[in-house]
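Reopening closed ticket. The problem is back. First fold of the pair:
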Amino acid sequence: MLDFDEILVSVKNPQIQKYLEESIKSYQIGNYRSAILAVWIATMFDLVKKFEVLVEQREPTAIEKWKSLEPKIADHQNWEQALIHAAKAVAMISRYEADTLESLSKTRNRYAHPSFDEGGTLFDPTPEEVRYFIRTLYDIVLSQPAQLGTFYVNQLLESLKAPTFFSNKLFGDKLTELKDHVVEKVTRINSKQVPRLIKELFKALSSPSNKEHELNVYCFLVNIWGAKSELQIPSDISSYWNDYILDRELNLRALEVILSYPECINELSEQAQQKVGIAFKDQILNQRRSSESAIKFLAAADIVPLAQSILNEASSLIPLDKILKQGWHYTYLFGDKFAPLFGKDILNETQRALKTRDWDQINRALSLLRECGIWDLANTLSPTEQASFANALIVSLTDNTWETMNLLGFTNRNEIPIRWVKLLLEQWSIQLDRDPRDRKGLPYYLEHYLSLVTRYIDELEDYAKLGKTVQIVAKIISEDSHASESVSKLESNETLWIFWQELLKKYCADQHNNPVGAD
């Protein structure tokens, strides 16, 4: 059944809506002849108004046709047939739809004038015939917006050759930013002309005038692909992309464009997806490139099987030494997928580097490990390995390794889980007891030590080994002027300076000569 209320609401012009409403009411009370006449008037009036819109939009073909059509309408000179032919000429309706309108015109004439059948009885429309009449005219004309046709498409295709077609400079991995612009232009085109536009755009890609022309065409095609549901475009565009991918080598620009809407990749054939995957490994992974569209593609792995497949292979495709040398690149490319993919290997490499006591190796590995979530990964180690790792960090700190000092610095204390704070302090205390040589280095790293202690005390109350350590430091700085000078620099950090003074009062009150920092 027809939903007459829905049809009436969709027609916005009040005059056209008036005639359409009259047709529907006539049908509902059984006045079928009047229903046909009223909906036909609404349709012809609608075509005239749409022609006027195209003329206002300066559509050349519409202007040309309107010059001969307007006088006929004014003089009532067989203008309905001329209007149907003109609408077909500007691609407002298709050839088939024009034939349908001409056929319905004959039906309308049969019921508008006295016409007799072979038995001499007047033709009388049936309810089914009236419903078909209203439904068909609504689908062909009344439900369609005034849209531009062939000439506009040709003009658009030519305009895309200009480097300045888009006001902003285009980049292959940021074309989606112009989606709204492209959608606005495509919605102005008669839906019957959009498939032709897509076909001609792909033809243009085979021999673009210049790089700017190629990028302009890419921008249109990929945004039409991404907005196909919004534009109500059939899936044929995916077939065009499929053929395009299979017919050419994919350079970085082409790959960036294709990856712009990751979910669209699922619509390609298996063979085309394989080719995209190979190009991604070559252009992005092997050549250490990255782009916004590549990042977006990998981030969509949950809904794009091809992206997930590439992630599954990534750790075997990229050597660890490349990851370490270009860590910033790969963390940017893989985003939150980086740590699950490479974190464990980087942790193992960091443990190995710590044993070498080589600053360069440690800094590089530890910096990347922090990007992966160092403490979450460290929690996966066995208790023995955790103690060893904590001890290695303390040794690295006393070796002046910059990344370790940054990791254990006062400003980072809240980033370290409390169980690791405790473990680090335990290992530091063990190290002091085990090797007296490390005691002399402690004053130089007192800020790091105290930052851990304050965190420990705040959350786990007292630290039993603190007193002994404070006494060791006090003794060293009373005997070593360089150590004393180093500790005095704590004054710039008010929180730690006050805390250090409190520790001296508590644990060194019985000493005759207070060390630097005492009141």
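Second fold of the pair, where the issue appears:
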Amino acid sequence: METAPPPGLVWIDVAVDRCPFTGDRIQIVEAELEVTGIDIPPDVWELGWSEGAQCHFALLEDLFGLSDEAGAPPYGARGFRLDGDDVSAAVHLTGPGATVPWPVFSERLEEVARRSERPTPTPTEVRRLPKLDETWELSVRETDVAEVDGRFVPIYLVVVTDAGGEVRGTALHPGALAPPVLADAVFEATHARPEAGLTAGRPARIRFADADLGRGGLKALLKKAHVGLETGPTPDADAASEALFMMGPGGNRLDVALLTETSDDDLSALLDAARGFYESAPWSRLRGDRYLALRLDDGPWLYANVMGQAGEQPGLALFSDWLALCRFVYAAPPLEGQGLEALDEVGPAEGLTLYPAAMLAEADAERLRALGPPVWDGGYPVAARFTPGGAAPSGWPPEIYAALLRALPEVVAKRRAATITSIKAGIDTPEGRLTLRYPANGTEALSGQEPAVEIVVEPAASRMTPLDEGQGALRIVGPAATRLPQADAAARKALRWGHFRAVELDGRVLWYGDAYADDPAPSLDDLAGARSVRVQLGAEMHEARVRRVEGGVEEVRAEVG
């Protein structure tokens, strides 16, 4: 979460329920908003208000819509007044978690507009530019679809990068990528970009990953500009394309530096460990719905998920304990279309994945480039913590990630099965001895000597539950390591009908009764002593008390009364 003091008015690209600066709930208030520099009449707006940050929030799309109606560009806005008072303003971009002052954002918009209006250089004009003895890369990706002349066609993002990996040009094009379209993208990239320190010039050659793109007359068009054509890998352009696709128009970097507290030695160790991890691709042999338990030396048991089975975002998700993992599995709403606000339900998410240098804060990108080339697929491994307010530095020491990145290729290589079903290993790494268990069940830290645990589920005044007031409470007692599916099975025998449909801890779902038997589930010990536990039976939520009890219990049992 960002810690910088917020300005008085923050324009946001996506509606949020919580303040990205303080995390408190946003209230809806009314205030008169006046935009100076654009002929937009003052009007009463519904704005968000954060008591903790003492600032208002408004949607960028509303400002863009009003400026369009006024026939003026949004970057024409020179200032803002709320209820007659001048206020400083900024723009918060939810995807990268970045906040920039309005004047900076306005300049970026104006620069994008200027570029879109300048004419594309002709082959003759490009030929006259200084020749750069470089090979540039061109990458193409399909981003969306658009309706053109009554039919839907793909929208392509075209990205051109220079020999240093810097983005020289981008273009969005609906429909087929004919040779003139690709040639124009290359010619546009020869323009000078003073704000990025790039001078005008033409490359000696342009490289495509897809040989088909170079057919149909493109080679002849480039030849007129004295630019050669070749096919081969385009890691820099692909990485930049990925970053732009993730961040949206404008290609904004993360303003939050993620590596400030990480030393160069720790970063070097992380890069070295990550190379082996990504080359071995352990996600191809471990299931995405199973989890690792890990322990470095005598530290606490942590839990991890190896990501990448769907072909996207390979890396690691890391959980501080088993309950955090269960909350993420069962309480998280689908992230599609919701952005980071979905994390309101589960708390911060932590993980390591690949970031193109173009997506990282400039300070982080410079440090990583100085330490070596990208590790895999044009990206660098970076650990981060994600909250509704955006990205923040990782909360775990880098040696945790480095040890796991080193150990996984070794344990995977020792197993012959295409899909690994079990890991029980201790691996010595430069970071320490790492103990691994897979699949984890959440009881790794238990010794077997813990007291038994009792759950008492109170009845409810309802006919929509198998536990009404006339029956008394449901009492379940079992060993500390008893998992909720086992407790539920005992409850089914004691109740006339029904079973646990869901279990909540402090208002957040930890487990659903229709989960598979080998899905993550809390143990009774996880719930012992909790402030607030509720159990859904039938259509009703029941209050429950969970406590440790003296005496040995060998198996779980349940009774009503």
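Update: turned out to be a display glitch only; the data is intact. Confidence is low (pLDDT under 50) at residues 1-5, 248-252, 333-343. The two ends are 49 Å apart (CA to CA). Please close again.
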